[in-house]
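Example with several molecule types.
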Amino acid sequence: MLLLVAVHALAAVAAPALVRILGRRALYLLAAVPAAAGIWALTRTGPVRSGSPVVETVTWVPQLGLDLALRMGTLSWLMVLLVGFVGALVLAYSARYFRSDDPGLGRFAAVFVAFAGAMLGLVVSDDLLLLYVFWELTTVFSYLLIGSDPARRASRHAAMQALLVTTLGGLAMLAGFVMLGQHAGSYRWSEIAQDLPGGGYLTVALVLILLGVTSKSAIFPFSFWLPRAMAAPTPVSAYLHAAAMVKAGVFLVALMGPAVGQATAWRAVLLAGGLVTMFLGGWAALRQTDLKLLLAYGTVSQLGLLMVILGAGTRDTALAGAAMVLAHALFKATLFLVVGVVDHVAGTRDLRELSGLGRRAPALAVVAGLAAASMAGLPPLVGFVAKEAALEAFLHGGAADLVVLAGLVTGSALTVAYTLRFLWGAFAGKPGVADTRPEPLDRAFVAPAAVLAVAGLAVGVLAPAVDRVLAPYADLYPSTDPGYHLALWHGLTPALGLSALAVAGGVGLFLLLHRRRPRLLRLPFDGATGYDRLVGAVDRAAVELTGATQRGSLPFYLGVILLVLVVLPGGALLVGVPWPQRYQLWDTPLQAAAGAAVVVAAVAAARARRRLTAMILVGVTGYGTALLFVLHGAPDLALTQFLVETVTIVMFVLVLRRLPTKFSARPMRSSRRVRVALGVAVGVVTAGMAYVSAGARVATPISVGFPEEAVSYGGGKNVVNVTLVDIRAWDTMGEIAVLVVAATGVASLIFRRSRALDMRSGIPGAGRQSSVRPRWLTSGATTRAQSVILQVVTRLLFHAILLFSIYLLFSGHNQPGGGFAAGLVAGLGLAVRYLAGGRTELNGAAPVDAGRVLGAGLFVAVGTGVTAMLLGGDFLQSAALDFHLPVLGHVHFVTSVFFDVGVYLIVVGLVLDILRSLGAEMDRQQEVDEGENTPNDVREEELV
Amino acid sequence: MSPNLVYVVVVGVLFATGVTLLLERSLTRVLMGVILLGNGANLLLLTGGRAGGPPIVGTTAEEEMADPLPQAMVLTAIVITLGMTAFLLALAYRSWHLNGHDEVQDDVEDRRIMVLAERDEGPGTADPETVDPVPARAPDGRRVAAGDPGRTR
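Resulting structure tokens for the full complex:
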């Protein structure tokens, strides 16, 4: 069974290619796939008939108890036959319905086959979660099929409506499944059915499941989506909206019926909802002038009928229901296919425009007549057999059953009436309407409908055989004695009388309507208005809410967020937290001095009007912070902060040289006051948090054990470094990934064309650079205001700087240093080279692509972790090696150094990337801008 | 652990000035605000741990060591601030290059929705186009008059 589902999936994937090669003939080939499912089911008839289901289980997610548990009992067997063979016939029909040059054909074929696969999976699932997955898959594919003409608004609207209604119902159903599954401790229906909860719990679960059922099968008040879904091509309507998808709800009711059929809520919802749907659907069908819509409302009515029969919950109704499912699939699919043919050959399916088609296309009329007779419940067709069984089953019950029986008879009369309306509308000659001149019939186009119609006849005639096959399903219910048997002739029974009454009533109703042509009262069909109002209200609320909150101004958003920070945590500080009684002014007085410098510089930076001034002042706060780190006892932090601050200043200088000297003047003083007020408020709250949080630490810090662990596990003495590369290496892994992303972002913002992006590599291969022969100590291309002396000095120093950085890298495990600091030192070396000699000098110093350096770094870092895993450890677990080398003597080597090397490379790559982007490339762009007198052209070109 | 007032004041001032700059429109100022906030946040994190000698085994006795965990966290935060600074600088430059200034603009889409909401227009109002349910159409593209579930007639 799983294999069959997989074959459907593969065929769906291959379908577009097949259609491209073979055109519409590919659909014949694809029809073999669902047909195979049907044939497979036929080969399993023996075991199924003897009442032993076919079971197949594959473990899927054992942690969730989710298995691919499949199980085909009698009911599933029947559904597989329908899904498979009807699917195959509809595909064959589609091969004539569509033209080969239809641009959407490949997509249609793929989605259609995928749908058939999902439907197959649905009806053989034993695991309810798996069933739910297939259930939602059918919803999604149905959405795609209904909306197969995305250019039409009605098509999109109908598709969206079907999707929303059925998905919401499906979610409710999932909740119901979970309730049952949690109670039983298993999600297999075969096990849940043995261990059902009781009382209110069961009622709630069942009502939730019925929400899914009724929305999927278009039962009142969810019926409205089905007629609108007729926007789909006719083959889709024939398969999804008659034979397969809408039957999913019916199937679930039939599946669960034997276990829960006696629950009051279950019966009440199904009987009431079914009767109302049957009546409203039948009534609405009588009002339609579009043949396809007529059938759609007829389908709604029949789905209601099926719910009534299957919801009654006795052995005989179950047998009648199963037969009715079979009958309905056969005749309704046929009729839809016929409508498609009529539409094609006559050019319309409006029954007011069609006339005399029966005379001109007699074969088509016969096919339609057979199916229609089955729908109306005339012997010797399967529809008659099923209806007889249903009437008989309700005949012997109490008062409630008699009410239902009256409903059934009324519904049957309505069915007869709209069946006649269909036949009359499609084929009869009408006075005053010009005769339709159909195109010649293509036999292959009609054949699938004919096959289905004849099948309806054959099943009717062979009713006793069908009875034997379906009986194991009905016998799941407690048996009444003697059980009813499907047959064409039971003698002159009351049921036969009721049948005749219904037919007579239907004919009378049709004639009455036909002669008098009264304006039929439009009944409040269902929840369509409610749905539209609800969706409209949600849309409106979204617009109003978005309009009210998304003002489009970034400062406004930030202001709101910060205001929340001030009000909530600030309020909590005031009322809910004990403030520490003891405090100290400082650890050492030097802290006060450094702190004062930071405070003064920060305030001045906020007031500065020149960019460069502000930048220097911000730098001062950074260096001041570094000083505070030193005094706190954090040499690694201080080192890194000093280096970062320096790199930051270099970056600022590089960019600020292009930007205007002063910030643009903002005349609004009032908004400035607001900003300052908010800033001060946030500052006060944060200071309060700093004050309180320092006092709030009562538990022993997790890091108490770090020094000991650093030495024994990490093999290093610098606890901070070991924390970074070993104890909390996962954090570092995330952070270096962020650095790579940031570097990539910088490059892509500055290099705006792919041609320019090649230059990020800086490898001298492009024209003028290669023409300059490298010289020792100078780049040889000293332009503008570059000092030769500076160049020579930096060249001499550069290697010493690099060496120092490598020393920092390797000693970092035991001394202040490590990958971050070392990488920054190397980066500063590159920066000095660039500042002294421009981009040529930078390329000479690092003739590699910054992206490659970043990539190599990430590779080394991840590789270290993976290697540890491959050697049987945890990701990024480190090991210490001690060995003796000839010159160096005793070497203590820890593998986490490799991780630090990765960090080092990434930091170097980041700085190199910054220099290439904000330095070299901006130089180049400046030269271009200066070279051309019309900078507007340049901008336009770069915008492209 | 009793709070250190120097830290409290410095953190407060860095946050106050940082937020003030962050609310500006000039990207360069926003960026400087981010850097000030970053410094403030790093200090705030650091105050969560004890001050003391450098956390290097052999140099400092274990009981005199500063808490190493906040230090490790802050260290990576410093370097990430660097990456972020570079990115924002590139953004500022790009904005200047394209628009001639580096100011943060209002989002045009958001403004449009705001106008729609004020005028009571847009989705969810009685827009006749959204209720076009007639599904039928003849092959030649002519719309077939069809009975609608209850709307057109």
